[in-house]
Design a protein that fits this description.
It comes from Shewanella yunxiaonensis. The protein is α/β, with parallel strands linked by helices. The chain is built from eight helices and 16 strands. 24% of the residues lie in helices and 28% in strands. The radius of gyration is 20 Å and the shape is globular. Bound molecules: ligand LFNQLBSZ and zinc ion. The ligand O=C(O)CCC(=O)N[C@@H](CCC(=O)O)C(=O)O binds next to strand 6.
């Protein structure tokens, strides 16, 4: 498999052809970069002639139909294999859910991005492919980060189901003891991200798991809107690509000035969870993420009761009434330029 990958330099094609399993193998690119295939969709590069200071995880395809970041990562992998990019940092690529990528769906049985931080082992739920994949992905991330001594980063790349007033935005995992870093927000801002949501509670997402378990600088990054493979305009991600190349191929993390005037900080004020099967939103399916509501305006109905905006300017992100009962149906956010950063 690895020989085929080295020759054809198309990890996406290889992953889609082998969605369930790939045996571990290792090789090298010339004499400067180690390549290790750990499983289907899991590839690790190690610089052999420099001493890396950073361990960087770039995951995509955690939701199978969010294809633009998968295509972007596949291009980066291609360019690394073809020696157009020479790495200075350790780098792990993950294509999260190959069976869902083949089906062109968000997931096959269960939303993979609700199964991390050990939720995959919840004894009250029967196991399935996504639960098994979450367990494996967490173990690969642990193995990647465990050798220690280097700074840890995890950018979990997604696209949103709806259009958004902010075309690219990031979700910053809840970490009450440690403010998020201006360095990281400046980096993501230079990568085209212009809004940041500060999460208000622990979750079971991939980025939260890397943040809480390994103290990684970890983010869920939304890079536009869901499109089928082949229909993405990757020129929209030119800045993202450029900054990702910089972070993996420079010897130090890119030094960028934090420019608050170029971005909006939001705090998540509450998660609207679905409790009853009749949960519906009071707005249309094409209302963009970050649309603001007036205080008291009806956002949704559930159990025949209205759910209203608690604050003037409260905005809705990721509304999805189709989620199973008990899961998040939307996040309510409010712009807040007083959020503490370090
Ligand atoms: O557009 C949507 O409704 C969902 C896009 C998406 O997959 N977002 C992530 C965010 C994860 C987080 O809160 O960190 C998700 O829902 O898993
Ligand atoms: Zn997603």
């Amino acid at each position: 498999m690895l020989q085929q990958l080295l020759q054809q330099a198309n990890f996406l094609e290889l992953t889609l052809a082998n969605p369930a399993f790939m045996a571990e193998e290792r090789a090298a690119i010339a004499d400067h970069t180690g390549v290790e295939l750990w499983d289907t969709g899991v590839l690790v590069f190690t610089p052999l002639q420099t001493v890396p200071t950073e361990d960087i995880v770039l995951s995509s395809g955690i939701h199978g139909n969010e294809t633009a970041p998968i295509e972007l990562c596949n291009q980066l992998i291609h360019d690394i294999l073809q020696q157009k990019i020479v790495l200075q940092q350790r780098l792990m690529f993950i294509f999260g859910n190959p069976p869902a990528m083949i089906e062109g769906t968000r997931f096959v049985t269960e939303n993979l991005n609700r199964l991390f931080n050990g939720e995959y082992a919840n004894p009250s739920v029967a196991t399935n492919e996504e639960r098994q994949r979450a367990a494996k992905l967490e173990s690969y991330v642990q193995r990647f980060f465990q050798s220690g001594g280097r700074s840890r980063f995890h950018y979990d790349l997604h696209t949103a189901i709806r259009r958004s007033h902010h075309q690219r935005f990031a979700i910053c995992p809840f970490r009450p003891e440690k403010p998020h870093l201006k360095q990281q927000l400046a980096f993501l801002n230079a990568a085209g991200v212009d809004a940041f949501l500060m999460h208000h509670e622990a979750t079971t997402t991939f980025s939260y798991a890397s943040s809480v378990k390994y103290q990684a600088e970890a983010f869920t990054v939304e890079l536009g809107k869901v499109m089928p493979f082949g229909q993405n305009d990757l020129s929209q991600l030119a800045a993202t690509r450029e900054m990702l190349i910089r972070v993996i191929s420079e010897s130090e993390f890119p030094a960028l000035t934090y420019q608050p005037e170029n971005l909006v900080l939001y705090r998540v004020c509450r998660s609207l969870n679905k409790h009853f099967a009749d949960f519906t939103f009071a707005f249309s399916n094409d209302l963009p993420n970050f649309t603001q509501f007036a205080k008291g305006e009806v956002l949704a109905y559930e159990n025949n009761q209205p759910i209203t905006a608690e604050y003037a300017g409260e905005a809705i992100v990721f509304p999805n009434a189709q989620v199973p009962i008990g899961q998040r149906a939307a996040l309510c956010v409010i712009a807040d330029d007083a959020i503490t950063l370090a």
